Amino acid sequence: MIEIKHISKSYNKGKVRAVNDLDLTVKSGEIFGFLGPNGAGKTTTIKMIVGLLRPDSGSIVVDGLDTQKDALKCKSITTYVPDYPNVYERLTGLEYLNFIGDVYGVPKNERLERIGKWLDIFELAGAVSNPIQSYSHGMKEKIVLIAALLPAPRVMVLDEPMVGLDPRASHSLKELMREHCDQGKTLFFSTHVMEVAEKLCDRIGIIHQGRLIACGTMDELKALDRADTSLENIFLELTDK
Amino acid sequence: MRKFLCLVRAGLRSNFGLSVLRHRLFREKKDIWLVPLFAVAFVAVLPSIYGLILLVQNLYLALKPVGQERALLTLGVLGGQFFILLFGLYYVISAFYFSRDLEFLIPLPLKPFQVMASKFAVIMINEYLTVMIIVLPVLVGYGVLARGGWPYWVNAVLVYLLLPVIPLAVVALLVVILMRFVNLGRRKDALVLIGSIVLLTSALGLQFIVGRSPNVKPSAQAMTAFFASPDSLLNVIGSRFPPSIWASKAVAGGFSASGLLNLALFAGTSVLFFAAILVLSERLFYRGLVGLREVSARKRAMSRAQMEQRVSSGRHPVRAVFGREWRLMIRTPIFLLNGTLVVVIVPAVFALMVKAGSGSRDMDAVLRLMNSAHPLIVILAAAAFMIVCGSLNGTSSSAFSREGAQFWISRVIPVSPRDQVAAKFLHSYLVALLGTVTASLVAVWMLHLTAARLLVAAGLSLVAGIFLTALGMIIDLARPLLDWTNPQKAIKQNLNVVLAMCADIGVLTALYFAVRFMVRWKLPDAAVIAVLYGILGVCSAAGYAALARFAERRYREIEV
What we know:
The complex is a heterodimer. By secondary structure, chain A is of the alpha/beta class.
């Protein structure tokens, strides 16, 4: 579960307000889609959840742990996939996965089983002993995803995870996301792909100019528009202000 | 020409991070604390600058009575040019082949020679700043002492501006040719590294050859002839590298016929070398460059057994972070050269330079005498040499900067900052240890240290290494440079590395004064060494504790 309690974040000494009094709860077992135009505050919110940015005010609680006060415990149950797969290019894929397994304390047997399984699913088994430097953008995205899945975290936070993935990998990821949440775990992700959000998410939040302007299930969002319309239309209407 | 100037301007802005610095200093006011820090760093290196000025003055006064003072200019020019030849190599390789701006410069409608010339110009400006400390004291000192008129100063400025052209062009020619062929191979990193070491060895070899002078005893007649001409010593010093003679004569001669002729010779040769680079770049530069970043790798699926063997069985996080640091360092040629190999190269260069000098036998005798007469001085000199060789590298002061855009990983993994810093510290300290070991070998060879004295000196160096490593890491952690696009920036052009070196020099200067004070108080040698161990031990413990505490705070504050 992720509880975001009235967080705000501004840059440039308060001149640019990226997130403004955001209040949101993502329940366990839920896939939560976070939508918003460019610069709306999605990445800033995500970075605050995983501890890369500190909120100016408010707090974030992950599975009962405050991200500021119990930072290390929070990190041990959360994994993160950034919007751009910036990873250690001079390591091989397997060395990177080993590093992640070591720091999250994943036992060898589980590590072997999970790495083998996801390398097959993401068709990366042939490249795992090569340096990440030699990977394409999509392959880098895949290795970051596998690294995020490796510790079997309680909470996964993904920033536009579908970008750069081929259709097969994208399909596999959606299945994995569902599987993850069916085990009672939490998944929070941002996307610009309305169809994915519409079909995959249990609930959707729309952020605009740092404020959460809508949040609910697909049906609840449709009710806002009082018409049987698509998520895309709802999004366009809500953010056209 | 306009395109070229645009490129140079953009290159300078990116190289020195001018736009970012201005933004951070005056807009965000984040780096405003750098101003007093710079002032402190400047004060810390003042004793060294003062020492250089004194050296120039003494040399001038020693050479003046025999009419050979012009040789001082040759020494300065030659020193500066060799410095550029030796260290320009790193700049050239990384600016020409490893900077990421090349990725968008190549598709632009620019000719290869324009790109190459702009990069060359940026390196030249870098070199003006680098050799300033060697050449300026000589040019200014000589000018003041010899009361050179304005023609002297005009020519001195021109020579200073042209100074980096020839050595940089030599390095660039070698690099461009080498890279053209390196690019044919699959293992480019290894070849780049081997190529760099070969070039470096060649530069050292050249230095060795130049440093050696014929060992013949001159006759009285030859000696008289030698001192009859004011340029005799100048010619001997610069004989292996004539441009340095022309440069010295141009500066000393002012606007006289000889001065202008030598200036024309120096400028003409520089232009020729620069032209050669332009011609060659048009033919070879892009061919060596295109595809350099591409890494080919064969796809090989691993069997279950292979996977079992290579999947680790759960290392302690400190070990995992240490392994990552080590791998990233040795697999990035620029980091390896500037962080690790430099601690081996510097003592070797020093030993070769001293042993190659014509007075090495006399020096040997003096050192043997010192060893028996002043053991304390010998031990402390050896310790200082080991400290300089072990700690004055960029490993600790770029420990966080080297992570660059990947620092987000360190921020999200469930490993406490204390543990991460411990792993980084161990890595940096191991490099310092390598430097101390190499320097110990050189010290034994040159200073003829006994085993006991060697142990005392190496011990001092190792204790000091803890403090200086922690200090370097604290400086880098205070202001990590994480937004680099060229790994060279993280270590070679990182202000933190310079600040840490200034801090190290400051610490060594403070220790020097502490020793002077103790010697003046007639403390026995053993007591002086014990006090030094005590001071360094306390500083090391306090330094490491401060680093661990600082890391807990900074890891929360640094936003990526």
